[in-house]
Structure formats: structure tokens, C-alpha cells
Amino acid sequence: MKNKSIKYSIILPLVGLISAVMISCERGFSDDVELATFPTNGDIFIDDPVGLTDEFFTSFDPATGANTNGFGTDNNEVYEGSASIRIDVPAPNDPNGGYIGGIFKDRGEGRDLSGYDALTFWAKASTSAIIEVGFGSDFIEDKYAVGFGNLELSTAWKKYIIPIPDPTKLVQERGLFLFSAGTQSTNGASYSFWIDELRFESLGTLGQPRPRILGGQDQTAQANIDTSVPLIGLTYTANLPDGQDITVSARPSYFDFETSNPFVASVDDLGIVTVDGPGQGGDNTAIITASIGGVEAEGSLTIEAVDIDVISIFSDVFANVPVDNYNGFYEPFQTTLGGAVEENGNNIIDYTMLNFVAIEFYGRDGSGVEPIDATDMTHLHIEFRVNENVDAADYINMELHNNFTLPNGILGSYQISGTELLSNEWVEFDIPLSSFNGLTARDALGMMLFVTDNNIANLSIDNIYFYAEN
Amino acid sequence: MKTKILKNKLKSILICTVFGIGFMVLVSNCNPDETQNVTNFNTISMQDEFDVDGAPNPAMWTYDIGTGNNGWGNNELQYYTDRPENVVVEDGMLKITAIQEDFEGSGYTSARLLTQGLFEQKYGRFEARMKLPYGKGMWPAFWLLGANIDEISWPFCGEIDVMENGGSKPTIVSGAVHGPGYSAGNAIVKEYEFTDSRVDSEFHIYGIEWGPNYINYYVDDVLYNQITPEDVTGDWVFNNGPFFMIINLAVGGVFDGNPNENTVFPQTMYVDYVRVYSAN
Lengths: 470, 280
What we know:
The structure holds two protein chains of two kinds. Chain A is built from one helix and 32 strands. Chain A is mainly beta. Chain A has three domains: 43-201, Jelly Rolls; 207-306, Immunoglobulins (Immunoglobulin-like), CATH 2.60.40.10; 310-469, Jelly Rolls (Sandwich), CATH 2.60.120. Chain A starts with a helix and ends with a strand. By secondary structure, chain B is mainly beta. In chain B, helix 1 (2-9) packs antiparallel against helix 2 (13-29). Chains A and B meet through loops of A and loops of B.
């Protein structure tokens, strides 16, 4: 101890002396030196483009149907000053392209926007219409892209505010504005809209930051070691000065991700979760969470490291095999509607008016989809959520068909009773394939049938996969 | 006006000392109207810094409990309690929390604190530093009632609303007076709008300076309204006697409407301090 304190007491003054000497030796910056910070100008278009590329507007690829003709400025229709941006949205059958959109890029190396909290502009349209806007897209990395797909334009000038999820990230941003407009909201009728006073601003009137991952849901998944799964459903909600919430999509780079158990899973800057190992002490789960600017995001992914062989029919975690459909629509006897949908950043299958429904994967109508050889699989994993009240007498009769539509076809059945299901909550099942009565072969599974006879009319299904534990 | 705004800032001896010279220069440059009423409220007469964890100091605060008549006359939805879930002092703050729960027949609980019978004062500066909840249906308020309310009833006792906010308007607060002939929907009221801040993201000081024939309304160091007998459409009942303070967080009712599906619960109103000054 004594030695230590002596050592430090000698070193510290020495360090001070050295640094003092060094400082006194160092020359100051000359006037020619440019520090590695970037312009902080927030203006994008006031009456002219401000510091944008010569093209001003960089269109989406015309090969995707983007129309490059409808972009210009207007000296008559302005909110303030002498000019506005005018965009003519083409009809879907326009030979020059059926929609219009693109980005505005900084002409230099990018701008330091960390002093602002929002992109703002005034806009109006020749008719009520919905367009998409955003920023952070430079058509190179799009690292800090933010998008809002539901901007409702009216025929009167109105100020719009798009929040920056975490301004401290935007120290060198080239992608200053993005828009994309079609005629989906106007029944195919072309229209014009105008944008004026487009800039980044420091408002101070935004509040209640609410980042979300996975649509704000707490999800669970099993995954094999050395496999990866991307976190999706990344959004950021802020409360605007008028008390209304706005929710924008936000790229993973705005988020700080965290794993609760590095022995099981890690997560990188892009929100890719990788299962690294089986865990220690029997704990094979890791909880992945995120935050923006210190504000904890709603939603989490609890990932369980497993060692299984998987043939996945429908899952966000495993690579899915091709299928013919998630609803075979057997008319006229089938009433069931629905199929695969995205629900708050989670892909699920959602059925309504369910009497029976099939997921088909046998190559219907010459589709080329191959039947599944599940001979080496031992279990079917499947998750159900009954979107109505469940009675004990309710049931889901499942069938697996081998060599479906062929003369030697067989089927195995398995019943899930209402007592095993919950109303409006997911329930996981791991069903031994040997429990499917009558399924004497499973080398060419081609169809999975769900029969409820309308006892359960509203049913969601997720994470359907065959597996075998190694 | 300038002297009043400055005088408002000059609360502590320290600040007075530092800025004393500047203050005197400004005063000497100012030629106030002969009829202007200027009173300095420099003497602390009541303060609660909410530094002791637990229930609020019972020597300073009492509670309204329940739902009153017709939701405290305003169709408010909450049941007021004094439970720690709804009112507690911690982290150097008074926290009044509105909770969505079934309680005694109401769908929400919250709290309403009063100094009635414990601290009442005529004239002075009344201020609270607060951060407010947000969301439609939130109705936080800091206000004063005439201490003679039980004898002559409302609105004859007078009511001074230092600050009210509707949770659907996070940049707007208002101050008002109610009295005979100018109560409820006919109150004398003025809004203040934050242009670069919000009520729910930052603490702000909401205060009045109340003297003979005037009430001045402040947000932080901005004087945004003065109400005098000329402004009210009835008798001026604010020279008659002492008033007591109320701090509450109502849910629903006539001010901001009822909560909707976007209103997030629970919501908390944070009070850093309440300070009352009287004239020298």
C-alpha cells in the first residue's frame, strides 16, 4: 500500500509536468485548420434548395416505376417567401412512372443535425392525400433513416413535424429529406402537393419519447446456436405540441441494444441477434432489450438457445420452407378468411370466420413447392391465440396429410381442447408427431388442416415448425 | 411591468446581492404610473420543499377524499385518496399519481391536497415548481379558494386558479379567477403557451402575485396576465380575507374531457416545491 501511494505521488506530479510541457510546446490551431465537425445548418429548402446536390432531387429508381418528371418548384403557390417545392403525383398508368419519390442530399460531406429535434415543413395538396416522408436516407447506407408513411395532406397549408429519435446520432448526415407519393389514397387520381419552409428545427415542444422494438411486444423464440434473427418492428413515438402522438419507423442504428445473457445471445448495432452458445449453469435464455437516448424501448425478445433440427413452415426466427399458401380457400364449404399478416412488427397468421382452413405445401396447381419430408423430425411446434372467448367444449382438430391428393395419401389427426387454450393470449404447443393418430408415414407432408367448425371463429397462429432435438 | 418581473426573480438574498446594483439601476430608470400597485413579497410565510420521504407533512396538508358531488362539480372521474399509491413524497418531490383502477365505484384514483385550516393567507406570492402529467383527460391544477367558503359558499368565497392544464394540450396552461357573476364557464381566464418547452417534459414555476385589487399570473419569469377589478364581471372578492391552497390531479371532467384509448396510465404530477411569500 505504502509503495503504491508513493509511486502515484511521484508519478502524478510528473504527469502534470509532462503535460504542462507538452501543452506549452504545442502550437495552436492556425486559421486554416478545419476541425472535423460538419455544418450545422438545418435549412433544406426555404425559397431555394439550401446546400443540396446540384440535382436537388434524387429520384427512386425509375425501374421501380418512379416518375422523374413531376418534380419542380412553384413561385405562385407558396406558404412563405417566393417559392415552394411542387410535386405532381402521376396516375398509376402514367407511361413515365406510376409514383414519384426520392431524396434530397447534402452537397457536402453531411451536416451535424445533433442540435435539432425535428424535421419540419409546411405542406398542402390539391386534394386530400396520404404520402410518405422521412429523412436519413442517402441511398448508400440509410443508417439513420426515419420514415413516416401516413402523412395526411389537406388542401390548406399545415405545418408537419417529424421527430428525430436521437439527434445525437446525426453528426454527419447527408440524407436530409425523403418523400414518396402515389395515388393509393386518391383512388388513382393524380394530384399535386407543395412543400415549403423545409428544415430541421429545435422545437423543444416534443415529449413523451417512446421507442419500441418488435412492435412493443414481449416475444419469445427458440433458435439454434450460430443462427441469427433480426429485430423488426422498430419504431419511435413522440408526442407533438398539439398533444397528438406520431410514430415513425426508425433504423436500428438509433437504438442501443442489450443482451441479458452474453453466454447465450449477442445483438449488434443493426439489431441482428445471434445465438452464441448454450448458456451457463443451465440458463439457456437471453432477453434482448433496447433503448434510445437512455429511454428504454417497449418490447423484448426472449431467445432460447436450442440445438434442434428445424423445418419451419411459418416463423420469424427460422428460415421458412416455401409453401403454396396459408389459406387454401376450399370453396364453397370453407368460410374462413385471412392468412399471413404483420401485427405490430410480428408476422402471424390470422383467421376469421374459421370453420376449417388448410396450409398447403404439396405443389398445388403445379407450383413446384416440394412436400416436406419430416421423417427425421419428432415434434411439431405451434402457437395459437384465440381472439375470442374460449369454452372448454371448443376444439381445434389438426390434421397432417402425407402424399396429399395422391391415391396412397394418409392423414394423422390431433385434437387440442378448449381447456388448453386461452382467450387473447398465445399458448405454445410442442406436439410429438407420434401423437398424430394415423400418421404412419411423414416423408411427404403436403397439407396441415385446422378444423374448428366455427366453435372458434377467430384464431391466430404463429411459429409453426417441425423439429427434432439433437 | 419590468420592475415586477424582476422583483419576482429577486427572491433570495444571494440573488438580490448579485443583481442588486442592476436592479437599482433599472428601477431608477423606470417611471411607474402613479396608480400602479407595486408590492414586494419577499418574506417566506410557508414553504414545503418536499424533502422528507413518506406522506406529505400533515402540519401543512390535508386531503379531500372521495368523489365529491357530481365529480367535484365537474364530472371528474377519479376517487381521491390519501394512499401512498396516489400521493407520496420521494426523490425530493411531491408525487400525485392518477391510476386507472376500480376503486369504490370509480374507474380512477388520484389525490387532492389542501392547506385548508392549516395555512391560509391574504395576498402574497404563491408559487409551485411542477412537472405535469400528459394525455387526454389529465387535469392537474394548483389553485386557491377563499377560506370563508364554508360560511358564504362558492363562488362568493372567490377562487384563484394559479395553473390549470388539460393533458391533451402539453404546451398550454391557464390562470383564472372565479367569483360571483364570473364563475365556471364565465370565469376570467387567460392561457399561456410555451413556444419552446412543454409542461410534461420540464419543471416550470407557476405562480401568482396577489395584492390589493390585482392578481398577476406568472409562468417561470414571464408575467402573462394581470386581473384587476375592472376585468371581472361581478364583485371583486379578493380583498376580503385569506385563501388556502389546493393541488390536485383530476381525471376527466369538463376541463379536458375524459381519457381516451391513447391516455397512458399511471400519470404523475411532480411538485418540486410550494412556496408562499408575504409582503415585508
